[in-house]
């Protein structure tokens, strides 16, 4: 039995509220169970220096966690004077994941920065950030299209992510903190709406996993991402 009482293949409740930030071109508040992330997409009418003159744009991301997003207070990284390694790794993952669903040439020489700020954490913050970040990106793209600033839709497909792992010897989807902290195997699966894999992060800690178990986790991730994509489409 999972600590939450969920079935092995049962996702946490998902809600996505859009338009939560007045000034951002796209924004949403995504809630996946007890994990709440505020996502915004900001359009900058210039490409980063390494892309100037190429006709291509860029999508990047920044990630942060409020001090009391967890059960004990974390020091603000701004107060520490630098970002932690975990933060840098997560925001690079978010950026890579979102770019996989974008035609950068159709975007033109501009940059969109997706900010993901964790208000409350209960496992799966990077997955919720990717899923909510795509919604914010979609809304920002809609504004570019409405203003005739792009000639075709730069978004190729939905992008969403879910965690899966082996908890108490059983493959489970969408781990909360209680499961994540005890799981022998933990993974994050980033996929497109069509079911194509973008990135898989898998590791075993305390117990190895088999090829058949990996297949089970992929099946769980496929079904979980499909539910997240449904929520994205409903929110848009």
From TrEMBL:
Reactions that this protein is recorded to catalyse: tRNA(n+1) + phosphate = tRNA(n) + a ribonucleoside 5'-diphosphate
GO biological process: rRNA 3'-end processing; rRNA catabolic process; tRNA processing
Enzyme class: transferase
GO molecular function, one term: tRNA binding
Keywords tagged on the record: Nucleotidyltransferase, RNA-binding, rRNA processing, Transferase, tRNA processing, tRNA-binding
Pfam families: RNase_PH, RNase_PH_C
Enzyme Commission (EC) number: 2.7.7.56
Coiled-coil positions: none
Residue positions binding phosphate: 86, 124-126
Known partners and oligomeric status: Homohexameric ring arranged as a trimer of dimers.
Name of the protein this chain belongs to: Ribonuclease PH
Organism annotation: Paracoccus aurantiacus
């Amino acid at each position: 039995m999972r600590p939450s009482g969920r079935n092995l293949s049962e996702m946490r409740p998902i809600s996505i509220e859009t338009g939560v930030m007045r000034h951002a071109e796209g924004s949403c508040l995504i809630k996946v169970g007890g994990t709440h992330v505020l996502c915004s997409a900001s359009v900058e009418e210039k490409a980063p220096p390494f892309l100037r003159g190429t006709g291509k744009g860029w999508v990047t991301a920044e990630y942060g966690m409020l001090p009391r997003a967890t059960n004990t207070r974390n020091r603000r990284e701004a107060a520490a004077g630098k970002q932690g390694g975990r933060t840098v790794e997560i925001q690079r993952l978010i950026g890579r994941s979102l770019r996989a669903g974008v035609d950068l040439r159709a975007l033109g020489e501009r940059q969109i920065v997706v900010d993901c700020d964790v208000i409350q954490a209960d496992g799966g913050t990077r997955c919720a950030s990717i899923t909510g970040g795509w919604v914010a990106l979609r809304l920002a793209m809609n504004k570019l299209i409405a203003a005739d600033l792009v000639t075709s839709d730069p978004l190729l497909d939905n992008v969403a992510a879910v965690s899966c792992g082996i908890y108490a010897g059983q493959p489970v989807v969408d781990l909360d903190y209680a499961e994540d902290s005890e799981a022998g195997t933990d993974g994050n699966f980033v996929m497109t709406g069509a079911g194509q894999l973008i990135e898989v992060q898998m590791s075993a800690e305390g117990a190895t996993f088999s090829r058949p178990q990996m297949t089970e986790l992929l099946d769980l991730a496929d079904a979980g991402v499909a539910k997240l994509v449904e929520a994205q489409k409903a929110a848009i």
